[in-house]
Structures are given as C-alpha cells and as structure tokens.
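#random but structural
TW: two for the price of one
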Amino acid sequence: MVEGYASGVVTLLAINLIAALGVSLFTGFTGIFTLGHAGYMAIGAYTAAILTVEYEVHFAAAILAGGVLSMVLAYLIGLPTLKLVGDYYAIVSLGLGEAIRLIIENWNSVTRGARGYPGIDNYTSMTVAVSFFLVLCVLMFFLINSRYGRAFKACRDDYVAASLLGFNTAHFRVLSLAISAFYCGVAGALLAGYMSFIQPVMFDQVKSTELVSIVVFGGLGSTSGCLIGTTILTLVTELFRPISQYRMLVYGAVLVLIMVLRPEGIMGTNELTPAYARRVLKRWRKSPAAGPDEKGGSR
C-alpha cells in the first residue's frame, strides 16, 4: 500500500514537472506572464481521453496527439494575441483559458460536459510518466541552450532591443507559446490516464495560477529552479493530505515564506550546477553566520 502511494506521488510529480517546464519556457525564459495554460492541459487531457475511449488509439499516440493539438491551437491563438505585451497579454490569457474550459464544459456531445469524462484507461503508470518527463526535460535543456533559447531570453530581457538586433521577436514569442502548450498538453493527457476521470473544473483558473506560482517559486529563468519548486510544492500538497483542512494553508505559507525571504525564487536565474554549488558553499563559509575562522576570529 505504501509503495502504491509512493508511486502515485512520483507519477503526479512527473506530470506536474512537465506542465511546469512548459510554463517556465514561456514565462521564465520568454518573459510573458500567462494565466491560461491550464486550458492547454484541458485540451490535451480531453484529446487523449476521447482518442483512447472512443477510437481505441494507443495511449502513447493519444498523449502525443493531445500535445500536438494543444500546440497547434496555441500557435493559432498566439498569432493575434501575442502582439500584446505585459499585463495586457496576461489578461487575454486569463480569458482564453476560461473560454477553453467553458467550451469543454458546454460541448456535451463530445466532452460530456460538466459531468466529466469517465472510463479512461489507466495508462499513466509511474514508468510512463517518468519516461515522458525525462525525454521532455532533456529536450527542454537542449532547447534552452540552443540559439532558440538565446532568442527567447533576448525577447525576455528587451524585446525592442532584440528586434533592432534582427531577431524576429513576434515569431519567437509565438513559437515559445506553442512549445509550452505542447508540454502542458502532454501533461494534461498523462493526467487523464492517471486519474481515469476528468472534469472541466480540474483545469480552471486555480490550476493556471498554480502553474505560474510554481515557476515564480522556483525562479524565473531557471530550469533547475522550476524542477525544485515543483517538487517542493507537490510534496507539500501530498504529504499534508491527511490533514486536508490545513494542507492548503501550509502550501500558501511556504509560498509566502519563499517570496518574502527570496523574492527572486529559490534559484533566481541560476542553474544547479557543480560550479554554482561551489559558489554557494564558498559564500556560506565567508558569511558571519558560519562562525569563527581557523584563526579564531570572526569572518
């Protein structure tokens, strides 16, 4: 029983990590604040559910189809909307996410409406979820360190200067949205196979806000920070489930504590590398809190 619970937590963690990586690319590395990525998770979840239940498509193909459909819709949505910048796009993304949820909720003939979609095969095992996460994590690492990743960061730091330097910032912003939607679509498809039942309410504004909070918590512009933040917040939610009336209080307290003590997030824009660990250790040894040095004096 304990092993089953542990594998369930690892599976859910892998799903959350995939979704968080997608939001991290768009918000952390491209610098566009979003409040609607739960809508892309919903598209991926319902696409995989319908393909596996109604058409008996293999779950791997259904998961990828959910990601691809989310990617295509995000690209089409991004062409007109990403002309907006700053808070304006955040407001638009909020409306788009809710629009997707409401369409799913009212399209009874296809999605079965607000009652939810039952009978989904339990195809998301721990092995499947972790395998998808590892592959997508490696791909994200290479993407961030490629010329596309540098272009995304240029759009984040100063999109006007990037445009003057010859970057097609509009193209890279839309591309970032499409890739991030693919990650969220895959995460939603995996979630459908893990839960075996989905409802539109599972992909509401609260879910979108949770994804952004995880990215900010870990550090904008840090892949390892995103992974660390997702792991901490997922474990906080799951480990405190026995005291369900207090677990969201603990979740909120952890968020507030980190934002007060470290506003830039756990990792900021740094990556967890051996060189970074050595710098942190050296800084800690030099700090007054580390105690007297070898000669007996204070540091």
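TW: number two ↓
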Amino acid sequence: MQLATVSWPLGVNNVDTMMAQAAALRLTGVQYCGDPRQCPADRVKRAAAAHNIRIIAIDPLDCAPPHPAQATAERAVAFYRTLVDYARDTGCGVLTLQGLSQWTKQANTKQEAYAQLVACVRDVAAYAHEQGVSLLYEVCNHYEVPLIHTAREGLDLLDEVGSEAIRLILDSFHMNINEPSPVQAILAAGDRLGIYHISDSNRAGIGSGNIDFLAQYRALKQIGFSGDVAIELVLPHLTPMTPPQTEADRRRLDAEIRRSAAVWQALAIEA
C-alpha cells in the first residue's frame, strides 16, 4: 500500500504549490480534485512530474449540473466525456464517477434515478474504454450524494452496468456513517477495491474519532489490497468540508497528515 492524499482538504488552489506540498509531506500520490475549466491538463501533468508525484485519480468536485433543469442523462454523459479526456490528457488515466449521481435529481422516483445512473455509467465506461481511461466509483455517505451509500450498493451498480473494469473507492469516514460493518464492506469489495481513504469518524486524523483502523487495515490485508491509501483529513474545527483558512491551520493540517501517515504505517506491525 502506498500513501497518497486527496487534494481538496489541503486548501491549495495552485496546482504547482499543491504538488510540492504533497511531496514535502513524503506522500507518493495525489487524488486530484481539480477542474479542467480552471487548470489545463498539461499544467497538472507538468506539476506532478516536477515533484515526482503520481496522480492516482482525477476526482472532480465541481461536477454537479449548473442548474437542476439541466440534470439530464445526455448532458451528464457529455460532461463526463470531457472529464474522461481530462484524465487521459493529464497522464493519470483514472477518473472517479460518483458525481454522476448528482445528475439524477430531476428523476421522479429513486428507481428512475438509479436507472439513469446505470445508463450514464455504462455510456461513460464505453467512452473511457475507447480512450484508455480506467474508472473508479467512490461510495459516499447519504448526506453528500443521492445514491450509492454502501459497498454492497456500489458492487450491485457495477454488476448492473456490466463492467469488471470499474473499481470502488471505500472511505473510512463515509463507511462509518452508512455501513453496518466497515470491515465486512472491505471484505465484500475484495479485488474490486481500487483506493481506500483514511479519515476518522469526525473526518479528522486517525485517533481523533472512534474508527477501528487496525481492524480495517487487517481487512485490507485479508483481501490482498496493494493499492493506494489516500489521506483525506479535515481539521476538527473545520469538519466536515472546510479546508485550512489560515497559515496556522495549514501547518496544523500538515502535522496531522504526517502523524496519521505514521500511525497508519505502524499498523503494519500490529496487523
């Protein structure tokens, strides 16, 4: 397992500065939450290369329709095709898809919304295959997205889409909200787990909440997981979604990322 970070909690808009920060934290990769409309792919690619950072996935945050009336399947697929191109052109070649659920809010029923999501994922997956881009779907809690809140729901979605190429992202914070057993969720995902995210039950560093990280580490070992582990921390007074606002907060977050990384690495001994 290699340690990476998710970019949005760092609160750094400049991609060069952000990649430098990840390197300074001695992390090997970044799950990049950038917007192709704001930062061109070639710039992201150069910044990562300059600091010897792997982009483990393109994970766009601003991926909801600009207006609810525009939340159609056709527009969703068209937009996500541009994101597939972006993932390809950054040299990363990996894109997350969970934002597609934000385009289903105009559906009359949950069943209609789910059917639209399946169709959209299937269409985007076909295009991604043509472009040589791999796909991930992050299982997020029900406060953040309208659909797919458990690993079982994620696996069922992938089965419905009919793709063995799409893998899941499981996040310790999200699992703590919606999974009856996070350990069982990891075991169920098995070799279809692509990335694992670290943050405690309050979205802060390891040990600040009530998550049993040793049990989850052991579950990852049991399924033979060797992928990226991405640290996605928010400071306790800024949870759940606010990045650092001051230089003091940035230094404190850096220290908490380093501490959590060290704790995670130490779990290998106990596991």
